[in-house]
Amino acid sequence: ECRVDDNGRYDATTGPDLQGKSVLSEGNDIVLQLLSKPDGPGAQSVVLNKGTFIHSYPYDWRTKEPVLIRASKQWFIDTERLKAKALEALRNVQILPSDVKSGMVGMLKKRPYWCISRQRVWGCPIPVFYDAEYGTPIISREIIERVAEIVRLRGADSWWELPETELLPSNFVEKCKQEGKRLPQKGSDILDIWFDSGSSWHCVLGGPSADLYLEGIDQFTGWFQSSLLTSVAVNAKAPY
């Protein structure tokens, strides 16, 4: 459970003292105050000592601001279900230099899942809507095909520019109106760029596998692997 909102502030579940306070600034001070003066008769401070430590901490390379690490809901591909087929598909692939093949196979075997969602304000959107009342995901072939057609005609930015009334299938919108329900809200997650590049075989090839995939040696854990997994998932074969 995460008690921090998208703006890095404590949410309503933390109580009136913390709600709306920035986690990395004033929120820190209030937490210390609450721990130092606990409620209840006979309660004692649980703070044994307070000081400042200099240590490594992640900073955003664009804004130069500290990064707040929090729990968030993500979308995953269960690569466990693809491993056996992917490893079998590699039997028909010649990998050069040959001595790196074991490394690619080893990484593939150890990979438990693939997180394909990212929280950025640009990129290829994940076409998922969320129930306006309960927040549960709403996704179907009909919705995906509708969004895909809009993106094909107007580009990926249409997901951010158009309202739900235009992105959702018209019969879905009409049904919500008839039942007096609020329209689902579009999600703000984008696809991992490795999913984008890893599915490029679909647009470039459209048919048989490529004769050659050429890239740097570092891509045995990147593009080569993401291309293999997406192709095996859809076509049950390697794209190269």
From TrEMBL:
<protein>
    <recommendedName>
        <fullName>Isoleucyl-tRNA synthetase</fullName>
    </recommendedName>
</protein>
<keyword id="KW-0436">Ligase</keyword>
<dbReference type="Pfam" id="PF00133">
    <property type="entry name" value="tRNA-synt_1"/>
</dbReference>
<keyword id="KW-0030">Aminoacyl-tRNA synthetase</keyword>
<dbReference type="GO" id="GO:0032543">
    <property type="term" value="P:mitochondrial translation"/>
</dbReference>
<dbReference type="InterPro" id="IPR002301">
    <property type="entry name" value="Ile-tRNA-ligase"/>
</dbReference>
<keyword id="KW-0547">Nucleotide-binding</keyword>
<dbReference type="InterPro" id="IPR050081">
    <property type="entry name" value="Ile-tRNA_ligase"/>
</dbReference>
<dbReference type="GO" id="GO:0005524">
    <property type="term" value="F:ATP binding"/>
</dbReference>
<dbReference type="GO" id="GO:0004822">
    <property type="term" value="F:isoleucine-tRNA ligase activity"/>
</dbReference>
<dbReference type="InterPro" id="IPR002300">
    <property type="entry name" value="aa-tRNA-synth_Ia"/>
</dbReference>
<keyword id="KW-0067">ATP-binding</keyword>
<keyword id="KW-0648">Protein biosynthesis</keyword>
<dbReference type="GO" id="GO:0006428">
    <property type="term" value="P:isoleucyl-tRNA aminoacylation"/>
</dbReference>
<dbReference type="InterPro" id="IPR014729">
    <property type="entry name" value="Rossmann-like_a/b/a_fold"/>
</dbReference>
<feature type="domain" description="Aminoacyl-tRNA synthetase class Ia">
    <location>
        <begin position="64"/>
        <end position="240"/>
    </location>
</feature>
<dbReference type="GO" id="GO:0005739">
    <property type="term" value="C:mitochondrion"/>
</dbReference>
